[in-house]
Design goal:
The complex is a heterodimer. By secondary structure, chain A is mostly beta strands. Chain A is 0% helix and 58% strand. In chain A, strands 2, 4, 5, 9, 10 and 11 form a 6-stranded mixed β-sheet that branches. Chain A is globular. Chain B is an all-beta fold. Chain B is 0% helix and 56% strand. Chain B contains no helices and 11 strands. In chain B, the strands form 2 sheets. In chain B, strands 2, 4, 5, 6, 9, 10 and 11 form a 7-stranded mixed β-sheet that branches. Chain B has a 4-stranded antiparallel β-sheet with strand order 1-3-8-7, with no helix packed on it. Chain B starts with a strand and ends with a strand. The chains are: A mainly beta, B mainly beta. Chains A and B meet through strand 4, strand 5 and strand 9 of A and strand 5, strand 9 and strand 10 of B.
Chain lengths: 114, 115
Amino acid sequence: EDQVTQSPEALRLQEGESSSLNCSYTVSGLRGLFWYRQDPGKGPEFLFTLYSAGEEKEKERLKATLTKKESFLHITAPKPEDSATYLCAVLANAGGTSYGKLTFGQGTILTVHP
Amino acid sequence: DTEVTQTPKHLVMGMTNKKSLKCEQHMGHRAMYWYKQKAKKPPELMFVYSYEKLSINESVPSRFSPECPNSSLLNLHLHALQPEDSALYLCASSHIAGGGYNEQFFGPGTRLTVL
C-alpha cells in the first residue's frame, strides 16, 4: 500500500528563518509527487510537480527537491503570508495504471511570526 | 487560466433534504474529481471521472451520487445525509487521469453542514 508521511506536523518560524519540510514516501511506482499549499477553509493550491529523483523546482521563496525516498520543500526567508498547511501527495502505479488517485500526507502546518 | 469554480460556497441541509453541489472548469481537462476533507485532515478521494465516465468510486455511500453531464461540469447529488457527512467538499480537475502532467487543480470547496 502506498504511504506518504510528512514531518514535522507543525513548524513555527520567525520571519526570515529558513527551514525545510519533509515528505517521505513508499510507493509501488512513482508517477509524480505534488506539493500543495492550503489556507484554512480553502481548496489546496498547486505549487510543484516532481517526476524523477534529482529534480528541483523553484517558485519565489519555495524550492522543492526529490530523491528516491523523499521530497523536501525548502522555504527561504519566509514571510508571515507563507503561513499555511503544506500538503504532499504522490501519484503511483497500481497494476499498470494509477487512474489519477493521489495519496496525500497528513500535511505540515507552517506558522511564520513577524 | 487554472480556475475550478464550485457552487455554493456554503450549504446547510437537513437529513431529509436533497441538494446538489456543482463544479465547473474550462481548462479542457478530461479528468474531474470529488474529494471530502474533514478538519485537520488531508483531502480524501471520493470519485474520479475520466472522459465523462466514472472510473473510480472509493466505496462511497449511495447517498452521494456523482454526475458528469459534460467535460466541463461535475455535480454531486446529496440525499439523506448524516451529520458526520459535514465537511469541505472539493472538486478538482486534471489534464487526464493518471498519466503524465497529472497536476490536479482544486476549486475553493463547498462547506457542507448537515443538521
